[in-house]
Design goal:
By secondary structure, the chain is an alpha/beta fold. It contains 15 helices and seven strands. The chain has a seven-stranded mixed β-sheet with strand order 2-3-7-6-1-5-4. β2 (47-49) and β3 form a beta hairpin. The protein is globular and about 45 Å long.
């Protein structure tokens, strides 16, 4: 079984208010098809329809305050209640204590130890590697988990070869924001199909985007709507090319943010977790909080 894990930073389940919540305003038929036509909102219950399981997921983990990226991502990729262990939600970048937790054990390390073939499909530009190498930039908790597992970070050459993907999935950002004039650009549907092709080469692959969180912090609403509609088209292309009878897609987030562009801060809302295809019920059995995601993945992949 091939498993593709999609991490959308900073998306939660918010109010049914199209003036504040891009999820309440965007036209996202692919997302709706996986929840029986329902929008992804605070009042959307746990659902098992159309070959998918949708589960509102607790990022608060019993710790007061607004959930943050470093502790939330560490909880996702270790199954440990990292905010409770530290006594606070913390982010965006992991502290030495959080890095130590990720180095001790994490989902990706367990999968590698079990003999699974892994890939991290994000593409990073040369300036990212330069900043990390000079100590000017810390890895995120997700990136740290990848590093600790010995899974390589992919770069410009991988993007050009179609082995890695930009944060906007299509590659347009590398041209418009990073200034690369000749890197490939695909339509959202083409990007989704290419993502399916690349993920089929591995037992477990991971792709992430920070754009959803950035829009949540900065707005405006229209940009959030546009990005959700772009991602919906990527997902549509992915699903058309994906073998849902035999393979699994998992989508989740670390904390809420995008669903309320009025406050420019993280929220305390539940986040959505979605499992599509094979072993979705095995993965989602008992899933209620971020700490349940790693155990669910291990169950679905048959790793003790």
């Amino acid at each position: 079984m091939h498993t593709l894990f999609i991490f959308l930073d900073g998306i939660g389940l918010g109010a049914d208010d199209p003036a504040l919540n891009p999820f309440a305003a965007a036209h996202t038929p692919a997302l709706w098809s996986l929840t029986g036509g329902a929008r992804w909102l605070r009042n959307t219950p746990r659902l098992a329809v159309n070959g998918a399981v949708f589960a509102p997921t607790d990022p608060r983990l019993g710790v007061p305050g607004r959930p943050q990226s470093a502790t939330g991502q560490a909880a996702i990729f270790t199954g440990r209640n990292v905010p409770a262990e530290l006594g606070e939600h913390y982010g965006p970048r992991p502290t030495p204590a959080i890095r130590s937790i990720l180095a001790e054990d994490n989902l990706l390390k367990r999968l590698v130890a079990a003999g699974k073939r892994l890939a991290f499909l994000d593409a990073y530009p040369p300036r990212f590697f330069d900043a990390v190498g000079r100590g000017k930039r810390l890895l995120s908790a997700l990136q740290q988990a990848v590093f600790e597992a010995g899974v390589p970070l992919r770069g410009e050459e991988d993007l050009r070869a179609g082995r890695a993907f930009s944060a906007d999935f299509t590659g347009q950002g590398w041209r418009d924001v990073l200034g690369f004039g000749d890197t490939p650009v695909w339509s959202p549907e083409e990007a989704g199909a290419r993502l399916a092709d690349e993920a089929r080469g591995y037992d477990f692959s991971l792709i992430s985007t920070w754009i959803t969180d950035e829009i949540g912090h900065r707005g405006p609403l229209a940009q959030g709507v546009a990005f959700l509609e772009l991602f919906d088209r990527v997902l549509a292309g992915l699903l058309r090319a994906w073998d849902t009878k035999n393979d699994l897609i998992i989508l989740t987030s670390d904390h809420g943010n995008l669903e309320d562009v009025a406050i420019r801060q993280h929220t305390e809302n539940d986040v959505p977790t979605l499992a599509i295809g094979a072993e979705r019920h095995t993965f989602a059995d008992g899933l209620a909080a971020l700490t349940d995601i790693t155990p669910g993945v291990l169950r679905a992949l048959g790793v003790a």
